[in-house]
Amino acid sequence: MSTSAHRGSLTRRSALGALGAGGLAIAAGPGIAQGARPAELKVGIATYLSGPASVFGVPARQTAEMLFEELNAAGGIGGVKARPIFVDEGPGVDHFVGEYRRLVQSEKVDLLFSAISSASCIACAPLADELKKPTILWDCGTQRIFEDGKYDYAVRSQANATPEILAALLYLLKAKPDFKTIAVINQDYAWGRDSWEIFRTGLETLKPGVRVVAELFPRFGASDFSTEVTRLLATRPDVVLSTSWGGDLDTLIRQAADRKLFDRSTFVLPLAESSLERVGKALPPGHIVGARGDHWFLHPAPQDPARLKTFVDGYRKRFGTYPIYSCHHMAQAVSCMKAGYEKALAAKGGAWPNDAELAAAFRGLTFPSPTSSVTIRPDGQGLENQLIGTSKHVDAYPFAVLDEMVVFPAEPITTPIGQKSTDWLKTLKPDMVSSMPKAMPYRA
Amino acid sequence: MSGARTLAAGLAAALLVVALAWAVPWLRFVLTVATAKGIAVLGILLLLRAGQVSFGHAMYLAIAAYTAAFLAPRIPDAALLLPVAVGLSAAVGLVVGLFVMRYRDIFFGMLNLALSMVFYSLLEKLYSITHGTDGIRLPPLTFAGATLSVEAQSWAVLLSALVLALVAGAAVRVYWSSPLGEALAGIKTREQRLDFLGVPPRLVLLAAYVISAALAGIGGFILAMATRQVTPALAYWTTSGELVFIAVLGGAGSVFGAFLGAAAYELTRVYAAAFVADAWQMILGSVLLLVILFAPGGIWGIGQRLLGRRAAGPGAAATAGEGGP
Asked: Which of the residues A4, A108, A120 would you substitute to probe the B interface, choosing the one with the greatest number of B C-beta atoms within 10 Å?
């Protein structure tokens, strides 16, 4: 490919040789016999360090750094210290696939946390099986992974798009049962389309006859929504759904607030928890906010209030903001790793588990999250509760907080094993709305 | 110099890649991607010889990759799928070429860019067919009828990439020294002269355009086989830019430049990402800046200068027998 047999090719060859030697140097890790305790536990973590999704990726990385320090300060896992190795998902799938291989084959990681982007997860779940490396899918949304495929080495330490969106729909049906029209304004990419598909399918089943007055899919990363806002002002929908996130959502909220759109329509924003602190009080009270799980620093009924407080205060002290849902997802992945290793260690009487034993230990595992606990089903999908609330302005915080919070237990709103979400959503019964848990108010 | 010597050089280079991929297993994937991109960059070099820069060749990359992804369930063999995918890339190249041939320079570049972004948007918008940004996953392919293990398959992809690179490199060299190829340089200097000679410049450029689309198609097909997941990002302008970046980095004068550039680009990226996960873009950018400022001939130019050869303009290297397998 790149050098020749001519005289003078030596320079080039030695240059490439040096590169190769560099590669070998990276590749040289301590060879660990299975069963013996390694000197160090290496964890490859894929997250967004560049690009728009770094609004989730960077806080998650910070969380990982904090939690790995805490874990190691407490003695590590089975006496072994853990070290995170971060890689950037930003450049896209072909780069990420290379990075995944590098982490496994060169860095010799023991475990991977991957990833934020659904495309990355779809690419790496089969890779996990090919390379036989336990992989925790820690944040991606798509429900297709375990519905379309079966993987032994990949598990998910969080929910997926179906329960995340269904919870918001159920909450809306309870909070505002008599709405007649709806509009959607989602980012124009897979998540925006998928989440609308889930919401619409569920809505048609549970409340047929609602008219969809506008389906708007502005460009991903758009910085101006004036056309869309005008359209929504003209069509006067009772409800506006937006599963947008990051800068797109911040801008949408600000521009909709400026033009009083929030006064006319009730907004359903299943990802807005991650934007609350940034948009401040631009988000008016009375709109429905979700968090891709039961993630809220003022969770009304945490399993262990001290655990949540340590997590929130620790993060806030170090990084100056409240942890958002991607921080919680990272905490779940770290907790999943710890609980999985402990289970596998116990099963082997304290001997260090190999990759297959570790991967098997994750199935059926229940591990604590900052707010409650998550159980991994036999198919690898995590069962994670969902918290939805209504925005409220209080004096104690310079941004909207959640009121009338409902914590949905995971199981009833998660697609059962072996079924596809789009089919299952068509079989929902209206009693799902009436059997919803009671709402809990904001408490300072 | 003789074609045989350059062929030997190319083979030696390919063997070196195999040795490197064998010694450092994780580099196998990186080198496969670099080879694939190198083949696509050959197409860029072809157009560069006529003084034209296409900022939209990622479209042909993506066409072949998506063809592979859509047809793989029906035609599960790489040997059958390759001609179909590359053929489609070339066919689209022909249709598009008929239009873009009317334009030169910045207009040529921008029109290509616009068309590739239209294709990118289609991949995203036709969500129910393409799965949008989530992309489509390729099932494992057979190679000439043989079902291979995962390990063997990654070798098969790398080896077929290298064989295709050798064939494509040789073909481009032959093309460059053919009348049709020599006429490309005529377009760059003064197009009317070709007309006076009775050579229709549009046809000359169209032929080069179709070949470059096919080369991008080969690259896209290998990328699809290597990553086994195709996403619209393949058609995004940054990917097109990457191909031009590699062409500049490697040096536009020779076939070897394309592959040197691709290898340097991918290795820089992967090593930069390994050492500073959140600032690798800066390293990549600095490398390109340094190359532009201090080595306008690219890596190939540096190599030639070190060897004390005469500074080569585009084409000189190839005819000197240094470049090209």
From this structure: A4
Q: Is A13 on the interface with B (CB under 8 A)?
A: yes
**Domain at B3-319: CATH code:** 1.10.3470
Cα–Cα distance between A89 and A103 in angstroms, integer?
13
pLDDT in tens, B252-295: 778 888 898 898 888 888 888 777 767 777 888 888 788 878 87
Torsion sign across C-alpha atoms B49, B52, B53, B56: negative
Q: How many domains does chain A have?
A: 2
Nearest to A118 among B6, B23, B134 (CB): B134
* pLDDT reported for residue A9: 39
Whether A187 and A53 share a structural domain: no
Q: Are residues A426 and A315 in the same domain?
A: no
Q: Give CA angle at B252 (B250, B257), nearest 5°.
A: 40
CB contact under 8 A, A27 and B25: yes
Domain residue extents for chain B = 3-319
Query: pLDDT per residue over A183-197, tens digit each?
Result: 999 988 878 888 999
Are A323 and A405 in the same domain?
Answer: no
Q: What is the mean pLDDT of residues A14-26?
A: 43
Tens digit of each residue's pLDDT (9 = 90 or more) over A292-315? 999 999 999 999 999 999 999 999
Test B24 with A23 for CB contact under 8 angstroms.
yes
Structure tokens at A257: 């607030």
Work out how many CB contacts closer than 8 A connect A with B: 156
The pair of three-digit structure tokens given for residue A86, joined into one six-digit string:
């971060």
DSSP line for B211-280:
HHHHHHHHHHHHHHHHHSEE-GGGGSHHHHHHHHHHHHHH-TT-HHHHHHHHHHHHHHHHHHHHH-TTSH
**Tens digits of per-residue pLDDT, A61-117?**
999 999 999 999 999 998 899 999 999 888 888 788 888 988 998 888 999 999 898
Q: Are residues A54 and A151 in the same domain?
A: yes
Handedness of CA A421, A422, A425, A427 (dihedral sign): negative
Task: Tell me what the mean pLDDT of segment B297-309 comes to.
Answer: 75
A contacts of B231 (beta carbons < 8 Å) = 92-93, 119
Note the pLDDT tens digit of each residue in B24-78: 888 888 899 999 999 999 999 988 888 888 888 999 999 999 999 999 888 888 8
Same domain, A270 and A152: no
Q: Are B252 and B304 in contact (CB under 8 A)?
A: no
The torsion defined by the Cα of B109, B115, B121 and B123, in degrees rounded to 10, comes to -110
Identity of residue A387: L
Rounded-to-10 torsion of CA A196, A199, A200, A204: 180
